[in-house]
Amino acid sequence: MLNEQIFHHSGLNLNFATGPRNGPALVFFHGVTRRWQSFVPLIPALSTRWHIHALDHRGHGQSSRAKFAYLVRDYVRDAVAFVQNQVQGPVVLYGHSLGAMVAAAVAAELPQQVQAAILEDPPFETMGPRISQSALLSYFAGVQPFAESTLPVGALARQLAEIPLTTPGKTGSIRLGDTRDMASLRFTARCLKQLHRDVLSPIVAGRWLDGFDWAAVSQKITCPVLLMQADLSVGGMLTDDDAAEAERLMLDCVRVRLPKAGHLIHWLQTDTCLRLVTSFLESLEISLS
Questions:
Q1: Domain residues for 143?
Q2: At what angle do helices 98-109 and 72-82 cross, to 10 degrees?
Q3: How far is the C-alpha of 283 from the C-alpha of 273, rounded, in Å?
Q4: Residues 223 and 118 occupy one common structural domain
């Protein structure tokens, strides 16, 4: 059973879910536009041996809105404060997408506290200026008007399904509804209803990574890392070049490629994700001091 609490930081109220103390702390950081419930498919299995914490990033879920402060580095500051002051003690981090970049930065910043990190398809340069070269730009620009929507979830999901996705250099477009089932779009709709519209502005502008040097971050990580790489052909965001560079820079990185897995590995291939994560977690020699 999880209960939701508030962490107060720099004038913000950050919502998080926490479970029973069944082991060392395992902290989840979700992707942009989502909320802590994104990890519901994983939490029941992992909570039997770990003390779960799952944070709503600023501007997401039930956390406070922050005026214009939605660069990756802003989320990192929140996460560092959360791990230092709320979680405390030895911790393992799990991040998806934005959350994976945040988890990497926290591991680099707090090497004595962070015992290991699981990074699920961090987008790195794909979500920087390079975003203008992919269909991601049309996706985020397309969903931005629906942030903070007051429409019922079902009606909003149907409108989201009609968003056209385009890829620079290619003719035509496809509907978002042709790439995601309606059940998933309902979850997306529920998340968007709780999303501050300003969250997406730096992404669409290609400025999201300003002040965030992922290569420098990777080089500072000394703990074991599980890096899960989705398939670019079905929506993955971590390129081979970026994954290889991160693997080279990190001291102890296990990189696992997942063919035919989309960006939301934990959502689309839950059993495979759980197998990999459990194998990695059970390999750790965690210091509880």
A1: 130-204
A2: 50
A3: 16
A4: yes
Q: How far is CA 142 from CA 100, 136, 166, in A?
A: 24, 10, 10
Which pLDDT tens digit goes with each residue over 224-246?
A: 999 999 999 999 999 999 999 99
- 122-166 pLDDT, tens per residue? 999 999 888 988 889 999 999 999 999 999 999 999 999 999 999
- The yes-or-no verdict on residue 67 having pLDDT over 90 is no
> What percentage of the chain reaches a pLDDT higher than 90?
91
Both 102 and 191 in one domain: the answer is: no
Biggest alpha carbon–alpha carbon distance for the chain = 58
Q: Report if residue 88 sits inside a domain.
A: yes
Query: What's the total number of domains in the chain?
Result: 2
Same domain, 223 and 259: yes
Say yes or no to pLDDT of 170 above 90: no
Give every CB contact of residue 37 below 8 A, 6+ residues apart in sequence: 61, 187
- Tell me the β-bridge partners of 255: 227
| 99 and 232 share one domain | yes
Q: Do residues 94 and 223 share a domain?
A: yes
- Percent of the chain's residues with pLDDT above 70: 99
Q: What is the CATH number of the domain that holds 40?
A: 3.40.50.1820
Which H or E element spans position 3?
A: strand 3-9
pTM value is 0.96
Look at residue 95 and tell me if it is in a domain. yes
From 188, 201, 191, 187, select the one nearest 148 (Cα to Cα): 191
DSSP 154-188: HHHHHHHHT-EE--TTS-S-EEGGGTS-HHHHHHH
Token reading at 164: 């056209």
Residue from 62, 126, 122, 50 nearest 92 by CA:
50
Q: Read off the pLDDT band of 288 (50, 70, 90).
A: low
What is the CB neighbour count within 10 angstroms for residue 229?
Answer: 26
